[in-house]
């Protein structure tokens, strides 16, 4: 399959930050993905995988090697009355509305999460008191070490808060089987709409962003609350600023660079550390090269 060469990754992330990928591949089926991985292996080209780019900070310095974007693998199949199988690139808002429209409950939480199934499984994305782990029956992925497709059950996926067993440096999610519950369609649709409307009221709609920047340090302390109380809404670095609507959201005012964004994250971390003596950990994943000082923000 042919790549897009020197593809600007800012186009493929919701924060609209990121340099160019030497090669960008967008397989639209498992078969194309597996053929692509064989091709890259033969040619000795290293790769990175992204989905919807909605939880991702990409370095403005660009990415060497190949970026594989699974967002074009969008199939959704009904396997049983209450089981859907969604390919890695299926979008959560679409999936949530589709499930609601056929009277399947369980995905109402996901309607305002603008990522794909692949990213949701890796991150154990969650909201409104539920998360991806609650609806997973199994996940099929390509294990690039063993070089084979594998299906992992719930126990093997080891879901935790915004974390799973899946390592995007080795595993590429191909699809997930979702175990939902047959229920009253009107109620499911009403709950889905309520969750979606809540997002419109509480998040900076219209500004490029990557969702919650930091994880909540504990169940009773949200990162947004701590940042707000620490005065983080005043913070800005270059074209990256903390949203006035939600203190755990960083917005791109236009043309922000990854350097500016990381500086802002460090300022946000420092504000909470100075006020509450709590060190916030970023929820976002990174892609590309970051300096040692920048990597400190992730404590890596
Ligand atoms: C406005 C907004 C609201 C949000 N609200 C929420 C929320 O309420 N709750 C929440 O949990 N998150 C939220 N997010 C963050 C984000 O949408 C989720 O984390 C989502 O699951 C990420 O999916 P993605 O496809 O965009 O993944 P990406 O951002 O593309 O990638 C995230 C990680 O997953 C890996 N990955 C992606 N696809 C694959 C694949 N096929 N195989 C292997 N690895 C893969 C990447 O390498 C990366 O490490 C929000 C984001 C935005 C912009």
Structural overview:
With 300 residues, this protein is of the alpha+beta class. It has eight helices and 19 strands. The strands form six sheets. It has a five-stranded antiparallel β-sheet with strand order 6-7-13-11-12. A four-stranded mixed β-sheet has the order 1-2-5-3, with no helix packed on it. A four-stranded antiparallel β-sheet has the order 15-18-17-16. Helix 2 packs antiparallel against helix 5 (185-202). It is globular, with a radius of gyration of 19 Å. The model has no long low-confidence stretch (mean pLDDT 96). Bound molecules: flavin-adenine dinucleotide. Flavin-adenine dinucleotide is lined by residues 14, 49-56, 70, 88, 113-116, 118-120, 122-123, 125-127, 168, 171-173, 203, 209-211, 285.
Report the CATH C-level class of the largest domain: Alpha Beta
Helix percent reads: 25-40%
Number of strands: 19
* Overall mean confidence score, pLDDT: 96
Supply the CATH architecture of the largest domain.
2-Layer Sandwich
Helix-strand string? EEHEEEEEHEHEEEEHEEHEHEEEHEH
Shape assignment: globular
- Report the major sheet: 5 strands, antiparallel
Category from helices, strands and their pairing:
alpha+beta
Strand order of the largest sheet: 6-7-13-11-12
Oligomer: single chain
Q: Tell me the distance between the termini.
A: 35 Å
Supply Rg.
19 Å
């Amino acid at each position: 399959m042919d790549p897009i060469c020197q593809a600007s990754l800012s186009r493929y992330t919701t924060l609209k930050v990121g340099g160019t990928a030497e090669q960008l591949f967008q397989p639209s089926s498992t078969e194309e993905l597996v053929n692509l991985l064989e091709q890259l292996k033969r040619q000795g080209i290293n790769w990175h995988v992204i989905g919807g780019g909605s939880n991702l900070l990409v370095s403005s310095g660009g990415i060497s090697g190949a970026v594989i974007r699974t967002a074009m693998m969008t199939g959704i199949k009904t396997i049983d009355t209450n089981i859907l199988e969604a390919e890695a690139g299926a979008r959560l808002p679409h999936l949530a509305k589709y499930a609601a429209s056929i009277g399947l409950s369980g995905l109402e939480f996901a309607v305002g999460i603008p990522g794909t199934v692949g990213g949701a499984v890796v991150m154990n994305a969650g909201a409104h008191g539920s998360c991806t782990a609650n609806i997973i029956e199994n996940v099929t992925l390509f294990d690039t070490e063993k070089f084979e497709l594998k299906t992992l059950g719930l126990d093997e996926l080891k879901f935790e808060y915004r974390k799973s067993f899946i390592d995007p440096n080795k595993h590429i999610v191909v699809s997930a089987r979702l175990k939902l519950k047959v229920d009253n369609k009107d109620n499911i649709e009403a709950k889905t709409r309520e969750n979606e409307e809540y997002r419109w009221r509480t998040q900076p709609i219209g500004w490029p962003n990557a969702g919650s920047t930091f994880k909540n340090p504990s169940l009773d302390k949200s990162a947004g609350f701590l940042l707000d109380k620490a005065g983080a809404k005043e913070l800005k670095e270059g074209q990256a600023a903390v949203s006035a609507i939600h203190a755990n959201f960083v917005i791109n005012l236009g043309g922000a660079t990854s350097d500016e964004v990381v500086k802002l994250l460090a300022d946000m971390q420092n504000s909470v550390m100075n006020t509450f003596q709590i060190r916030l950990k970023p929820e976002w994943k990174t892609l590309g090269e970051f300096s040692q000082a920048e990597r400190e923000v992730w404590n890596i």
